[in-house]
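Quick one:
INPUT:
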């Protein structure tokens, strides 16, 4: 990771109600939600960029990093409620919410459940309405995690996310991601991945109700969070915007941070409704 992509020391960090979190910078709140198998530190390039003029909140989703392991019957709404509880603790009335992969599902769930608390929502490398073949493959991977553990799936995960073999210019990023995968809580990872595997259609009816600017961004060469998926989601959302990143694969926030950061910055300049602006202004000091 380049020195300019290393996050500064957080203004606030800790664990509240089983959620490990960090806060950087100041300004309009911006929440970054990592994907399955990762952790809050995967957002270091985005924290370094946006903490200059946003209050950036990163945290470990349930089952990851320093956060508590969810119960076996955990639902997507529990992950959205985790974020709502964290924002309550931080006295943040509303925020921009950006999620990657599983984090994108959580971001959309949060936006649909708590629309008054969501200024803008961005779903990076999100899954939506998998084909029968894609659904069978991801359910098979979820089953493998339950029975063979994380270690047996790491190499195939890296191949999906970075290519096989991993291109030389992406090896540093792949090694970083591999470290997250090998250090993740195996039970938390398996339970979250099982939910990720079965939640691709959960927002099909809800997307037309998204009441805020919504960005759907993915990589041109991400086969499992495909451009077709993001295109379909953007078409359903009333204020949906589609952004396909040429040449990118699944971990584009890590492999092409400068490009992704600029695209996100452009999206965050999108005007929000008067109601959302009023909610933001009412944030406690």
């Amino acid at each position: 990771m380049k020195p300019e992509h290393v996050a500064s020391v957080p203004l606030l960090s800790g664990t509240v109600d089983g959620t490990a979190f960090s806060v950087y910078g100041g300004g309009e709140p911006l929440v970054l939600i990592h994907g399955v198998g990762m952790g809050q530190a995967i957002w270091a390039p985005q924290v370094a960029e946006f903490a200059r003029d946003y209050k950036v909140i990163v945290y470990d989703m349930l089952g990851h990093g320093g956060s508590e392991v969810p119960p076996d019957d955990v639902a997507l709404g529990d992950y959205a409620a985790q974020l709502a509880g964290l924002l309550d603790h931080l006295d943040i009335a509303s925020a921009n919410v950006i999620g990657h992969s599983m984090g994108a599902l959580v971001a959309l769930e949060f936006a649909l459940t708590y629309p008054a608390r969501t200024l803008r929502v961005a779903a990076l490398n999100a899954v939506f309405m998998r084909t029968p073949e894609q659904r069978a493959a991801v359910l098979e991977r979820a089953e493998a995690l339950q029975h063979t553990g994380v270690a047996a799936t790491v190499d195939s995960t890296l191949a999906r996310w970075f290519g096989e073999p991993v291109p030389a210019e992406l090896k540093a990023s792949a090694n970083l991601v591999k470290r997250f995968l090998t250090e993740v809580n195996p039970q938390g990872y398996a339970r979250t991945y099982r939910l990720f595997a079965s939640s691709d259609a959960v927002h099909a009816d809800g997307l037309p109700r998204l009441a805020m600017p919504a960005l759907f961004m993915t990589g041109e060469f991400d086969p499992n969070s495909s451009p077709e998926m993001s295109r379909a989601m953007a078409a359903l959302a009333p204020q949906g915007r589609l952004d396909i990143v040429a040449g990118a694969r699944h971990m584009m926030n890590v492999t092409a941070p400068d490009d992704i950061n600029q695209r996100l910055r452009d999206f965050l300049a999108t005007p929000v409704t008067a109601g959302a602006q009023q909610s933001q202004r009412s944030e406690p000091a």
